[in-house]
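User: Hey, quick favor. My workstation is busy. Could you predict this chain's structure for me?
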Amino acid sequence: MNITEYRQHQALSYSKLKAYLKSPLHGLTQQQPTESAAMRFGSAVDLALKGELQDVIVNPFEDGRTKAAKDFKAENAGKLILTQAEMDKVLHCVASVKSHPAVKALNLEMLDSDKPMFGEIEGIAMKGLPDWSFGETLIDLKTTSGMVSASEFAKTVDNFHYDLQAAVYCELARQQGESNPSFFWIVVESDHPFDVAVYKATERIMAVGQAKLRLALSNVRKAQEGAFLGTAEFVQELDMPPWYGKAFQLDGF
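Assistant: No problem, here it is.
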């Protein structure tokens, strides 16, 4: 199965599932995300690391409004088009990742890249596409415009629900016979100094990811049963956070 066939498969992916964390309404009405420069850059680093740089093209035109520039884009439809500056950064990222000792220890060249996984989780058809995998080892590549320090990446894991992704992938791996799968992130900065870090998802991360997975799947089932609920169905009292009102003198509060 190629990447196009995988994406066309009707099973839910992590990227689709995470919208259901908010509500059935958010899951049902989600739209295809517009490809951003950051997404395009991350895809280019991924392709380059897997030896598929032929699918990445440098745009020789500074002004995209000219006829020649438009013709160039049309001729290369389906390929990633980067500026020369972006391509230079991609190559820096790749060099940093390949030379990092923790990445070398993972032996990426011995693993399968983009090997699809399919299964059912709580009766919901799910799919996953780890960047690299073999046996109990699952690895995902992340590029970041911030730092790759543990404190910064921890925030990123929670904000973008990478823990949910880890939970989905590990559950699919267990269904394929792997009793104790481990999930790793390779994180690389998208700008100078192109620092790299490798993190293994801890038991706590996996526990939170599994809790998010249960919540998202619950909302998927509600949507399948016809519920079109948003974040809240009833009138609620608004409980403000601790910082609220500290600038004022309030009696009795």
